[in-house]
Amino acid sequence: MKKRSTLITFILSILIIIVGYLAYIKYIRPTYLFNPTQTKEVVLGETNLITLIKHTDQKDIFGIEIEVNGNSSGIFDMMVFNETGLVHTIALKGEEVDYIYKNDWYSDTCFLKFIERDNANGELSVEYRFLGLN
After folding, report:
1. How distant, in Å, are the alpha carbons of 18, 19, 35, 52, 134 from that of 40?
2. Contact partners, residue 94, CB within 8 Å, separation at least 6
3. Is residue 1 classed as helix, strand or coil in its secondary structure?
4. Three-class SS of residue 55?
5. Dist CA 109 CA 54 (whole Å)
6. How many CA atoms lie within 13 A of 111 on its CB side?
7. pLDDT tens for residues 57-109?
8. How many angstroms separate the Cα of 22 from the Cα of each of 15, 18, 29?
9. What is the pLDDT of residue 18?
10. Closest CA to 130 of 45, 32, 47
11. Do the beta carbons of residue 64 and residue 110 sit within 8 Å?
């Protein structure tokens, strides 16, 4: 009985390793390692619109990840657009801004518009990654 449970445990361990390796090869590596991040800087009050563009070698875009970090003296809105129009509006506030936006995305570009409320100012770093299957 003990030998049988040891064999089953060994076989299950090997299967878990194989499934993990296949998930890495088919999903994790193509999605994250082959889709590097890019960075843009935003100065609230000066920069109102920035354009995010995929890398030239990326194909079949299916998602986007945008991380906004920095500081702000008040509340501001970040509006996310594609070629057809407004997709989302996000209100951000606080001295230290730390926000991650993830969504399905099927376009090669993304437009971010920043609108300050009550003359908010500050500096932000926008790191973004278009997710695609190459």
Report:
1. 39, 37, 16, 8, 24
2. 72
3. coil
4. coil
5. 6
6. 10
7. 888 888 999 999 999 988 999 999 999 999 999 999 878 999 999 999 999 99
8. 11, 6, 10
9. 94
10. 32
11. yes
Distance CA 29, CA 16 (A): 18
pLDDT tens readout for residues 78-92 = 999 999 999 999 999
Token code pair at residue 7 = 């064999």
Tokens (6 digits) for 64? 């986007």
Count of beta carbons in the 10 Å neighbourhood of residue 105: 22
Give the dihedral of Cα atoms 102, 103, 107, 109; nearest 10 deg: -30
Rg (CA), the chain: 21
DSSP H or E run through 102:
strand 96-104
Distance CA 112, CA 53 (A): 11
Candidates 64, 63, 73, 53; CA nearest to 124 is 73
Output the six-digit token pair for 75.
């509340």
Amino acid at 64: I
Whole-structure pTM value: 0.76
